[in-house]
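Before relying on records like the one below, remember that each one covers exactly one chain. Contacts with other chains, cofactors or solvent are not represented anywhere in the record.
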Amino acid sequence: MSGHIYEIAILNGIVVDGSGNPWFKANIAIENGKIVAISRYENFSAENVIDASGLIVSPGFIDIHSHSDVTLLVNPLAESKVMQGVTLEVVGNCGSSAAPVVGDFAVNRMRRRLAEYNLNLEWSSVGEYLSFMERRGVSVNVATLVGHGQIRSCVMGFEAREPTLSELEEMKLLLKNSLEDGAFGMSSGLVYAPGRFAKTDELIELCKVVAEYNGLYATHIRGERETIIEAVSEALYITEKSGVRLQLSHHPPKIGAYGKSVETLKMIEDARVRGLDVACDFHPYTAGSTSLSALLPAWAQEGGFEKIIERLRDPAIRVKIREDMIREPVPGPGPCGLVKRGLWNMIFLSKCNVNKDLIGKSFDEIARLRGKDPFEAYFDILLEENLSGSVVGFYYDENDIRNVAISPYSMVGSDGYALAPRGVLMGEGGHPRSYSTFPMVIRKYVRGESRSELLYDRGDKIMSLETAIMKMTSIPASRLNIHDRGLIRVGFHADICIFDYNRISDLSTYYNPQIFPVGVEYVIVNGVIVVDRGKHTGAKPGKVLRYKKLFSKD
């Protein structure tokens, strides 16, 4: 091939190939969307030559845990992800996915969600959703899980009961069709309605279907705080009984379970010794984010939108809701642990449509401004916002994050969204992880640097660059059973991130999350340059991946 003119040549780069092996210097040639040659000696000729002298050349980052199901339709350029080096997003996490959408309850709920972005519902199945995204084009590759909560809402709405046999069969058929359509597995959100209404046996039956396809079961377990040991035990039991491969989502324990990562990681290791295929993911932030209404007790969310509004308007029911938020008989998501401890000063309003002047303020502060107690302020804002909006809460412990980060069974996932600092997405995702997760891991845990302007941020050198890149590339690719991405290898798709190791850093804060990172110079997706010298080119070469075409039981 000497003298051949390639489409792209990356010359003089320091290659961290995603395998965990030590870096090496090499030149890379790209053609027809693939890596076609790697040489330590030959200088390739190309139509487009990138001089990567002094820069790291790695596989594009794979975001194993993303919630961009709808935002990628709003803004296919996916700036907040691709500008940090992400070339593949896995959407449909925590039990919530954009498809399937059947039945009046699910259809009305999805229409209401899409209306916030001026989108119409133009699909019902996972296959139709993926085709819809494909037609619009997208800058990154996309894989989807199907949400257990979404499937349940299609069949049962938000009813707090076990499914009948015929309803369970209907759910299994919806799941099977979704997997046939290309979903990579199923996710669950067992602290969110309606997932929290599901018993273990229901999940086992559905995971048996996923196991038939060798798909992944990614779960936001039934409590990551006081009940984390029991919740991990349940997830492992589901895996044992169904044969499914298990992914524990955003695994570091939350307030009420600080220090428990030692025990949960031992549980993962012991399970793997027993032959269970278990792994987990993490993000590097001490704060997490969830929807505004997720702080409500399970019973207060039963029946969906209209029922919740009705309850919040009744003063007597508000008293009962308040009592249960303090008592918390059924575990809720992370911020609920702050509520029950009276730590409203650690919960911030991060997204809303009506009270935009309150974004970035804690509920403690909002309550003082309104002359009310935090519970009443929270209930009022829920009504004013029509239940829409998000909160950020500081409920992770840094030591637990590090324990999970250095585990051989962990990988990086943002738990964020593909966003842009403009248009309808301007007020979205009041958490820096949507813009900064991957550069932050390198800045915080590889270079060991802290950022004082990022609350509770403490850097330390706990892993090599090679290990960090592996946790962002080949490990998540392997979890997804994708065997032609996630490594710098001849024959692999040319998904590549080129960055300055000394400069790469997050700039976002909790008060100003919508700032792109620095140090990411080039991002290539399927052999097309999407980020060129730190600027988005507007290209949309991403592929909508379908699982059945990549890997199945056959």
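The longest strand covers residues 5-15.
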